[in-house]
Design a protein that fits this description.
By secondary structure, the chain is of the alpha+beta class. It has five helices and nine strands; from the N terminus they run H-H-H-H-H-E-E-E-E-E-E-E-E-E. A hairpin with a 7-residue loop joins strand 1 and strand 2.
Amino acid sequence: MAILIALAALVACQAGAAEVVPVEDGAKNLNATPECRTAEVAWRRAATAADRERLRNWRVSWLAALDEAKAGGGASEIAADADLFDPDRSLDNPLPPVGTYRCRIVKLGAAHQVNRDYVALPPAKCSVGQDSGETWFAIDDGTQRPIGRLFPGPPGRGVFLGTLELGDERLPLTYGVDDQRNIIAYVDRVGEKRWRLLIPAPHFDAKAELIEITPGG
């Protein structure tokens, strides 16, 4: 019975039953239930201090990168898909179920002069799986392949912690070993069978990244 109660509490948190209120490390979110606060402990313990800082400042990073992307050639694409790029769109049940998906990486804001302000990479095969009670996400194709774990996050959102595989690498680094490969992101459901990873301040060629996740493969 205790397990059923705990699972019900987790479902309520992920369904957005409580108000989403940003919380600084060490602060108390008085608008979240004790069960929802407990559900967030796992990712907060696993994340590096630098990544927690990046996620705290996600909105500033996202809006600045989005403005640059619009000015740099992506305005029409962004306007045509308002739900995907809306920073405040986060529907209930934010974590995608186990399955095979189609993922598209969109890079916003040039990190360096050689980069472009808006880049949408070709879709790639990706997947969500479970192992020993943990939920994993991975992009299986392409030259930049995030891989890592999905966690329950604040009410109505999930959190991704992972690393970046490059080129022909096939053995991912352990999260936390190389700061330049670490990835942290919010996970949102933005439509019917449609999710996104919202990555603030990635370490490579963009100021923010978005990974669109839709059924397929």
